[in-house]
Automatic annotation (TrEMBL), chain A:
The keyword Transcription regulation does not apply. Keywords: Oxidoreductase. This is Ferredoxin oxidoreductase. Coiled coil: none annotated. It comes from the Bacteria. The keyword Oxidoreductase applies. Residues 23-245 form the Pyruvate flavodoxin/ferredoxin oxidoreductase pyrimidine binding domain. Residues 259-320 form the Pyruvate:ferredoxin oxidoreductase core domain. The lineage of its organism: Bacteria, Bacillati, Bacillota, Clostridia, Eubacteriales. GO terms for molecular function: oxidoreductase activity. Gene3D superfamilies: 3.40.50.920, 3.40.50.970.
UniProtKB/TrEMBL annotation, chain B:
GO terms for molecular function: oxidoreductase activity, acting on the aldehyde or oxo group of donors, iron-sulfur protein as acceptor. Gene3D superfamilies: Pyruvate-ferredoxin oxidoreductase, PFOR, domain III (3.40.920.10). InterPro entries: 2-oxoglutarate_synth_KorC, PorC_KorC, Pyrv/ketoisovalerate_OxRed_cat, Pyrv_flavodox_OxRed_cen. PANTHER family: 2-OXOGLUTARATE SYNTHASE SUBUNIT KORC. This is Ketoisovalerate oxidoreductase.
């Protein structure tokens, strides 16, 4: 890990998948475990091209279940490790992901959402929100960053490794097929030059000394015998997650101070919202946007404060209300009228949002 | 508000519309503009109409990767012409190849302008079938002015320079294709 694959700062023009591979490299990732699935294939492809040049490793597994578990295994041995998947692969990977929650394994997962259910399309959607935040059996004790552009794919892929290792909860970068495949500009940088220190990794098992005598045993359990035992463990996991949540949670707003209509959206849809707000403001319509960056934990309080002041709320997403279901509990009791644009598996343009808001006004 | 030029390039797989989009957006990026390109990557990847969605903005980041209506649509096959009707409105310049037969009724009625160019013919008879897509690139450059001619040439150099080194005639051929493409739309805009 002596070499610096990204020197200084550099403006680049490339696909989102390429960006993720470079970001992992810049973050000092030791190994990627992977299984191909569209639209995230090229994360693997680029990683396999870049990794040998920088003394990093790659293992292709027989399926996504295996890719998820080997990632957990790599992390247990002290490696900065990640995997990437999409759609049906995300479904299959839920089992290792829930194990990572239970055993506090700081694994990083990059998800490039595609249309569902099942194999559906290879293109685009925001339909993996519920699954990425709350998939598998368990309570969804995960960190999920929803990115909107290539710069964020780079920034948050790097950040995901630090969040994972600092708090020891599995951490997700939730992109989508459009971000994966489109080309646009971004600035790559050496994290250290921006004052970002990568959190040290360490083995969670196989520690030196005799367990019980020289040190506490590294007793990472994934199986419990009684209801009572499990209840206690999960309650403690939840309490730890909630304790850290205020440090982890992130959101951004645009023109919310005097907004009469607030657009609530996340990820790439927010780009259409930003464009729509510029247009609407030019026409004298007071529109604003609230965008959670972390979908887990969810920025409930700031959202409530914004919506409370607004006259109307518009939720926009490329899914049938998955994101709305995450957001609505934070708004319980408010009477702000709400409308939606739900387009499962289809992109959303600024024109649609502008039209809708003008019709709402 | 920054002006964003929206371009839809559509053809059959193998006609090279995706490489045109790639070279063009890289050229715009090199010029310091904000460019966004996304291929239509559904089943069309495996035989069918291939569409490249390109947006180039003076300074601000481009919004959503796809758009409803384009400023310019370039359709290079009969199926592409029909498929792209949805991206045309009163502000769209619609360019198609005059080599395509039997599409008179499919050409969009409400476009700002419909321009037929003999790109396939020019490639075949005047230059070389291999540079067909560079002729198209020339047409886009002239019709939109999203990048300068010099920058477009530089982008070709960046992309194909290693081939030009081996065979300098290729450089000349590609430059000529670019210029011919520009001439084909000139005067029709």
């Amino acid at each position: 890990m002596a070499d610096k694959p990204i020197q200084g700062e550099k403006r680049m023009f490339m696909t989102g998948n390429e960006v993720c591979a470079y970001a992992a490299l810049a973050a000092g990732v030791d190994i990627m475990y992977g299984y191909p699935i569209t639209p995230q294939n090229e994360i693997m492809h680029y990683w396999t091209r870049l990794a040998p040049k920088h003394n990093r490793s790659f293992l292709q597994t027989e399926d996504e279940i295996s890719a998820g578990f080997t990632t957990c295994g790599g992390v247990l041995s002290g490696k900065r490790a990640f995997t990437a998947t999409a759609g049906p692969g995300n479904t299959l990977m839920q089992e290792p992901m829930s194990m990572a929650e239970m055993m506090r394994i700081p694994a990083v997962f990059i998800i490039q959402q595609r249309g569902g259910p099942s194999t559906a399309t290879v293109i685009y959607s925001q339909q993996e929100v519920t699954m990425t935040c709350y998939g598998a059996n368990g309570e969804g004790l995960r960190v999920v960053y929803s990115t909107a552009n290539h710069q964020e794919l780079y920034d948050y892929t790097i950040k995901a490794f630090n969040t994972a290792w600092k708090y020891r909860f599995p951490t997700f970068v939730l992109g989508d097929g459009y971000q994966a495949k489109m080309r646009e500009s971004l600035t790559m940088y050496d994290p250290e030059l921006r004052g970002i220190k990568m959190v040290d990794t360490y083995p969670l098992v196989g520690l030196p000394g005799k367990a019980g005598a020289d040190r506490d045993p590294a007793h990472l359990r994934n199986t419990y015998n009684t209801e009572e035992e499990l209840y206690e463990v999960v309650k403690e996991l939840v309490a730890t997650y909630e304790k850290f949540a205020p440090e982890i949670v992130e959101h951004t707003t645009m023109e919310c101070d005097d907004a009469e209509v607030v657009i609530l959206c996340h990820g790439i849809v927010s780009r259409a919202a930003v464009e729509a707000i510029r247009e609407l403001r030019a026409d004298g319509v007071k529109a604003g946007m609230f965008r959670p960056i972390t979908l887990r934990p969810f920025p409930a309080e700031p959202l409530r404060n914004v919506v409370q002041k607004a006259k109307k709320l518009l939720i926009v997403e490329s899914a049938e209300g998955q994101f709305a279901r995450l957001a609505l509990p934070s708004l319980y009791g408010l009477t702000t009228p709400m409308e939606t644009i739900f387009k499962p598996g289809q992109g959303i343009t600024s024109d649609e949002i502008v039209k809708k808001i003008k019709a709402m006004a | 508000m920054a002006k964003v030029v929206k371009i839809a390039l559509a053809g059959e797989g193998g006609q090279g519309v995706q490489s045109v989009a790639e070279i063009l957006t890289e050229a715009a990026n090199e010029e310091g503009k904000e460019a966004l390109y996304i291929p239509n990557f559904g089943v069309e990847q495996r035989g069918g109409v291939s569409i490249a969605f390109v947006q180039i903005s003076d300074k601000e980041k481009v919004g959503s990767p796809k758009f409803e209506k384009a400023d310019i649509v370039i359709a290079l096959s009969d199926r592409a012409i029909r498929r792209c009707a949805q991206y045309v409105d009163g502000n769209t310049v619609f360019v198609y190849d005059t080599f395509i037969e039997g599409v008179e009724d499919d050409l969009p009625k409400g476009a700002k302008k419909v321009i037929g160019i003999p790109a396939i013919d020019t490639a075949k008879n005047e230059l070389h079938p291999r540079v067909f897509n560079i002729i198209i690139m020339g047409a886009v450059v002239r019709a939109t002015h999203v990048v300068s001619e010099e920058r477009a040439k530089q982008a070709l150099e960046d992309k194909l320079g290693y081939k030009f080194e081996q065979d300098p005639k290729l450089r000349e051929l590609n430059y000529r294709a670019l210029e011919r493409g520009m001439q084909l739309v000139e005067g029709q805009l």
